[in-house]
Amino acid sequence: MAAPKKSRGPAGGQGRPGRSLALILIVMVALTGGMFLAGQPTPRLGIDLAGGTSITLEAKSEPGQESAINKTNMDTAVQIMERRVNGLGVSEAEVQTQGARNIIVNIPKGTNSAQAREQVGTTAKLYFRPVLTVAQGTPTPTPSASSSGKPSPSASPSASASADGKASATPSASASTQGRAVTDGLKADVTPSPKASGSAATTPEPSASAPSAAEEAAAAKLEKQFAALDCSSKASRAEAARGAKPTDMVVACSSEGDAKYVLGPAEVSGTEVDNAKAGFDQRGMWVVNMEFTKKGSKEFQTITKKLSAQQSPQNQFAIALDGEVVSAPSVRTTLSGSAEISGSFTQQSAEDLANVLSYGALPLSFKEQSVTTVTAALGGEQLRAGLIAGAIGLALVVIYLVAYYRGLAFIALVSLLTSGILTYTLMSLLGPAIGFALNLPAVCGAIVAIGITADSFIVYFERIRDEIRDGRTLRPAVQRAWPRARRTILVSDFVSFLAAAVLFVVTVGKVQGFAFTLGLTTLLDVVVVFLFTKPVMTLMARTKFFSSGHPWSGLDPKRLGAKPPLRRSRRVNAPTDPKEA
Known about the structure:
Elements: H1 17-37, H2 47-50, E1 52-61, H3 71-87, E2 94-98, E3 102-108, H4 113-121, E4 126-136, E5 154-161, E6 167-174, H5 182-189, H6 213-228, H7 234-241, E7 250-254, E8 259-263, E9 268-269, E10 273-280, E11 286-292, H8 294-307, E12 317-321, E13 324-327, E14 338-342, H9 347-360, E15 364-374, H10 376-405, H11 408-434, H12 440-469, H13 474-506, H14 511-540, H15 544-547, H16 557-560
């Protein structure tokens, strides 16, 4: 006996609506929890809403160096500028590229915009300077205040030079500064002759004559700056680096803030570094290999020859970027056109140092195109106006849904609420994740998304009504209407997402916020309709209120003009015999 065939369900299949609803509920709970765990309970506001200063910089190349303006170099410039702005104590500052040649710096309110403009608009300067004195990064008493004559403790990276002439820097702790006070080191041990950056090296040599009164005054001033310098403070490090000239002796901090230095005039400019890459040495340790130009090679050879004859720490040369010492290896032999800097590097730190060296060699400069100041009051007024417009639009949508769809309006409103929760949590999480900031165009995109999302519900509801008008009951109508509504919704959302993607690619600046929000909410519309609206509609079709066609359900067959159910009637043959009639 053949097994009975399983009856096929209605078109579209009943599915398991509970699973879809459980999945989207889990996603909502996870996003909400992540929002609070990330410490970002509200979306990050753009400068037009929070207020502040927006600076637009355009990259300029030297003649014959047009290829230097590329994505890698622009991204490295963004990192340098972020460090500069953060050195001013600015939080939530935004530095990002715009197009191929522009960099946008958005600085929130409460920051000295003139100081910020000076910091971000200056090209990164990299110099190799001889080390005169080194000590711990905290403030130290001046030598005149100390009567014991004991050397003060200091932290300096010591290094060795390999047989092939490559410098090897290994961080270690120096027990003293050779027993000399800072003033003694400046007057007797090293009296460098001023010169322009990049010229032939003239390393510190003992002075043959007594220092003049001007030199003594300059040495005393530098001594006070060195003693008072606190490298644990970002503000102090930024102040020490500000205004330093290549021909001056300067005080500087290490990039970690654990050491401070007195540095002589620059002997080699970073523009003479031809190439720098992170790699491995023979021991499998991370190192940074750098090569100089022909001119830089001669200068580097001259400076290392003279430094190798000095005692520690005056046999060290400091690699100073924007006034901060990123490395200070010591030299024990003359080096030629290439050098290898090794130490306690990780892959990230080695690559970072290589980027610093490479960027210092780039012929890039930046021209200030525009500076825009936005007040928080103006942004707040615009935000309130946008929210009022959104509320009015939402209210009109609700009135239309209730008046025309009645009970179905409940499903639409709950779906809109779900979409709103997902949009809000994602916007909050995308702030710290990718730097997304909610600006006025983005708010407009969210308002437009209300109509797109409501349109998807309307398409599905109308397909269900069409099935009821054809004489079907609600449960089969819900399932048969879904395939047709699904195709229409996907095509409509695809067109909206494509328009948002094209707008995001071809535009720059704040218009991208509108395109990004529109694309995000379009994707969320698909998620909500598939995982929430359709399953909820399936469950509601099983309730008596909707399945019985209650007048307030929005699915009353009489109001919809439904046709009577089609019934098959038996065909009776007319009798052929007149006697049987």
